[in-house]
Amino acid sequence: MNYGLNLKPASEGDARTATLDLVSLGALIHRLDPGIIPFRKATHCDIHVSGGEFNVAANLADCFRLKTGVVTAMVDYPIGDLIAERVRAMGVTPFYKHFKHNGVTGPNMATVYSDRGQGVRGPVVFYNRSNEAGAQLKPGDFDWNKIFAGVRWFHSGGIFAALSETTGELISEGMQAAKAAGAVTSFDLNYRAKLWNLWGGHDIALKVLKRIVENVDVIVGNEEDLQMGLGITGPEVAAKSKLDPSVFFGMIDKVTAMYPNVKVVATTLREVHSTNRHSWSAVAWINGQTYQSPTCELDVLDRVGGGDGYAAGFFYGLLTGASEQEAVNLGWAHGALLTTYPGDTTMATVEQVRAFAQGGSARIQR
After folding, report:
1. Which of 44, 50, 59, 358 has its CA 20 to 30 A from that of 155?
2. Would you say residue 10 lies in a domain?
3. Pick from 47, 53, 81: nearest CA to 69
4. Region 333-347: what's the mean pLDDT?
5. β-pairing verdict for 22-25 and 92-100
6. How far from chain centre, in Å, is Cα 245?
7. CATH code of the domain in which 313 resides
8. Does residue 139 fall inside a structural domain?
9. From the CB of residue 268, how many other CB atoms can be counted at a distance below 10 Å?
């Protein structure tokens, strides 16, 4: 199936020499998670390795058994070693620019702190990205011709673009190289005002993101992302609910008028009833046609990474020739399952995702 995307056929032959199905560009981070205990009262925490762009590659490799890679910064110190171990464990091929740590101030692998909340108490997320190695990445740091030899899909995102004046330029360089190599390109707008406001603000964000999206085939982002990240004017009528896709679909004409290269726009729909109870759906616009998944009720353990879970399942459907509706449902199902695990990356199997996408239930498996 084409979807209007110039997808290369899946790699064949010896797995050791086969090319990659998807490569992501972004910053790796480690997230400190005390669970439902607020950080101000925490006495211990779990460590999750993450990064919006990495999560997609990791999910596709671990759950969906595709061959993926990540282009990123790596600091040679124990926290870097911890993160690199998790990259290997998820089956993702790394393309690192290495940085030496000075033993005191860095450069560092970024830290994200979060507590999950509970019931009426919402989750809290804050960062320490001081002297982050990923923010120091710049055009010219990677040999794209070597990385993209035979690669089918290239993915990056707005969080990485917001880290510094050079990271957005690196994404643009990668997007142009990916298009020249014949790969499909995708970008998760993931607009984070607190990151952009540190060095450029909204006006600079618009300039950077518009330059990136000029070379993008597939956009992931909700109505707010489209408005804030691309400057698309908002709807005149508010949505009836967070699960109403009409507002999102009503903005697509403006997106494609501004960016005729875009073939696919997709997002999740989430109605938050409490921290642990969400209604969950997903939608996509693909070459002029609209698709929506079913809606399910989620009992959420950890909501972080659900959107990346949707993107991974949706991309998997497109990469493997599924129908448009099946691709949306696979993304929706995988994103739903991901919220039932601790951490930012998947613990699901492709069989579980397919079963849920086809109407499975939570009955015990014997």
Report:
1. 358
2. no
3. 53
4. 96
5. unpaired
6. 21
7. 3.40.1190.20
8. yes
9. 21
Percentage of the chain beyond pLDDT 90 is 89
Question: For residue 22, how far is the Cα from the chain centroid?
Answer: 12
Closest CA to 154 of 134, 171, 167, 136: 171
pLDDT-based confidence at 18, cuts 50/70/90?
A: low
Pair 287, 252: CB distance under 8 Å: no
Contact criterion met (CB below 8 Å) for 184 and 153: yes
CA 356 to centroid of chain Cα atoms: 21
Pairwise CA distance, residues 178 & 151, whole Å: 8
DSSP 24: E
Sequence-ordered strand ranges (E) for the chain: 22-25, 29-33, 46-50, 68-76, 92-100, 110-115, 124-128, 153-157, 184-188, 218-220, 264-274, 277-286, 289-292, 296-299
Domain that holds residue 211: 22-357
Q: Is the pLDDT of residue 365 over 70?
A: no
pLDDT in tens, 171-204: 999 999 999 999 999 999 999 999 999 998 999 9
| pLDDT over 70 (residue 237) | no
> For 74, which DSSP code?
E
Residue 3 DSSP SS3:
coil
What φ, ψ does residue 38 adopt, rounded to 5°?
-60, 145
Residues 144 and 141: their CA atoms lie apart, in Å, by: 9
1 domain residue, yes or no: no
What is the C-alpha to C-alpha distance for residues 57 and 256, in angstroms, rounded to an integer? 27
How many domains would you assign to the chain?
Answer: 1
Write down the pLDDT at residue 3.
86
**Has residue 52 been placed in a domain?**
yes
Round to whole Å and give the CA distance between 286 and 314: 12
The DSSP output letter for 108 is B
pTM of the predicted model as reported, rounded to 2 decimal places: 0.95
Q: Are 217 and 186 in contact (CB under 8 A)?
A: yes
Mean pLDDT, rounded, of the chain: 93
Residues 6+ apart with CB under 8 A from 233: 227, 254
Total residues found in the chain within this entry = 366
Distance CA 129, CA 112 (A): 8
CB 75 within 8 A of CB 30: no
d(CA 54, CA 344) in angstroms, rounded, equals: 10
